Structures are given as structure tokens and as C-alpha cells.
Amino acid sequence: DVQLQASGGGLVQAGGSLRLSCAVSGFTFDDYAIGWFRQAPGKERELVASITSDGGTTYENSVKGRFIIFRDNAQDAVYLQMNSLKPEDTAVYYCSTVERGVRRWGQGTQVTVSS
Q1: Rg for the chain (alpha carbons), in Å?
Q2: Residues 85-96: what's their mean pLDDT?
Q3: What is the residue-wise DSSP string for the chain?
Q4: Which letter, b or e, does each residue of 70-104 get, where b requires 16 or more Cβ atoms within 10 Å of its Cβ?
Q5: What number of other Cβ atoms are within 10 A of residue 18's Cβ?
Q6: Given Cys at both, which of 2, 48, 64, 69 links 26, Cβ 3.0 to 4.6 Å?
Q7: Over residues 1-30, mean pLDDT
Q8: Rounded to 5 degrees, what are φ and ψ at 76?
Q9: Does residue 99 or residue 39 have the better pLDDT?
Q10: How far is it, in rounded angstroms, from Cα 49 to Cα 66?
Q11: Whole-angstrom Cα distance, residue 8 to residue 73?
């Protein structure tokens, strides 16, 4: 059973930092790219950052230089280090992968950045 468990969200002041974690199980983690998405109220879900099985990364323009995605294959986990947070980063953050042609989602973790 494929599971993705996101955690680490919370309330932080602008300029602060948070680290999100995504623990995965039920598939061969090392072989899959993992993405972090976010969805703010009234907005569509968007891809924030992704990491391939061999560690290649991509970032949405607004988070470049502030967010870092990395993975620990020994722990079957992916992390999103978020620095210099802004109020516009407020959203529910989800980790996700495509496994056997199906996009799988974790349950999401709320990040709220106060001004």
C-alpha cells in the first residue's frame, strides 16, 4: 500500500524557516521522483520543488534560492527546507509521486506565514 506522510508544517513569522518531511512506504523509494506541491485557499495546486531518483532538482521560480529539496534514500524520506518564508508561501503542502502511472498524494501539512 503506497503511503506518503507529510509533516513539519506550522505557524512561522515572515523571514523564518521550516523543514517539511515526507515519509514514504509501499514502493521502491530509490527509483522514484518525489515532488512537493502546495495549494493556497482559492488557488490551484502547484508544484514547488521536485527531486529525481538520482538527486536532480527543480524549483518553482518564486522559491528558488529560498527552498531546498533533498532526499535520504536510507530513510525513505524527502525533505523541503524552507527559508526566508513569506506570507505568500502560506498553503497546504503535499508530497507526491507517480507510481505505476498513478499520482499518489500524502495528506498535506499546513504552513502559515504571518507578516
Answers
A1: 13
A2: 98
A3: --EEEEE--EEEETT--EEEEEEEESS-GGG--EEEEEE-TTS--EEEEEE-TTS-EEE-GGGTTTEEEEEETTTTEEEEEE-S--GGG-EEEEEEEEETTEEEE---EEEEEE-
A4: ebeeeebbbbbebeebeeebbbbbbbbbebeeeeb
A5: 20
A6: 2
A7: 94
A8: 50, 50
A9: 39
A10: 11
A11: 19
Regarding beta strands 109-114 and 91-99, do their DSSP bridges make them parallel or antiparallel, or are they unpaired?
antiparallel
Cell (9 digits) for 108: 498535506
Among candidate residues 59, 62, 84, 85, the one with its CA nearest the CA of residue 70:
59
53 Cα distance to chain centroid? 15
Q: How much is the average pLDDT of 55-73?
A: 97
How far from 4 is each of 14, 69, 86, 109, 111, CA to CA, in Å? 28, 16, 26, 12, 17
pLDDT of residue 11: 98
Stretch 23-30: mean pLDDT, rounded? 89
